Amino acid sequence: MVVKKIDKDGLLLCELQAKAFEKSRKMQGCSSEIFIRRFMNSSIARQFDDTSILQTNLQANDLFERIEEEYGKSDYGSVKYTENELYWIGYIYRYYSYTYARSSVQVYKTIKPKELRSLFLPYHTMDPAQAIDRIIEAKGLPSDNIGEEQRQFQIFKRIRNAAHRT
User: Fewer Cβ atoms within 10 A, N terminus or C terminus of the chain?
Assistant: First the structure.
């Protein structure tokens, strides 16, 4: 799996999604987890995935309207995450999706909101790439960085063994 470097477009997507997640605390009647599930599985998320959202002038409020059009209004659930948690979760989800070329649905299935919320305090001050690497490593998922280290270690072992035989 090749990890893509974050660029200007990626940062814009991360910021837009993070702000939408942050505002969802006040704008949505449902719990944070319900909002996140709906968002990550929505047609809006697919526009984030293919970056076409950057060609629009949609703001956070417009995103909420589109999600309500797609799923209907909901007041299900009462657990609301803090605005800081929501901002970070939205940013991390998009950063992961963008840099690993994964769809929002794939990222959501890999890491659920409750799990990300539990990682907020220890990870929110880290660089997003480092936080994602740690999450991937802790879950035992393949990572380009981890694979490269293992490949280099195997080369080192072959060289060392060859040197001992001569």
Answer: C
> Would residue 151 count as lying in a domain?
yes
* Domain hosting residue 52, numbered range: 8-165
C-alpha distances (whole Å) from 43 to each of 28, 89, 91, 139 are 18, 19, 18, 28
Indicate the pTM of the whole model.
Answer: 0.81
Cα 93 from Cα 28, distance rounded (Å): 19
Residue 2 lies in a domain: no
CB 21 within 8 A of CB 90: yes
Mind listing the pLDDT tens digit for each residue in 30-73?
Answer: 789 999 999 999 999 999 999 999 999 888 778 888 888 887 77
In total, how many domains does the chain have? 1
Identify the CA nearest to 96 among candidates 115, 79, 69: 115
The dihedral through the CA atoms of 91, 109, 41, 48 has a sign that is positive
Phi, psi of 78 (to 5 degrees): -130, -10
The continuous run of DSSP H or E covering 132 comes out as helix 128-138
Cα separation values, 3 from 46, 98, 144, 155, Å? 20, 9, 6, 22
In a domain, 1, yes or no: no
Measured between its terminal Cα atoms, the distance across the chain in Å is 37
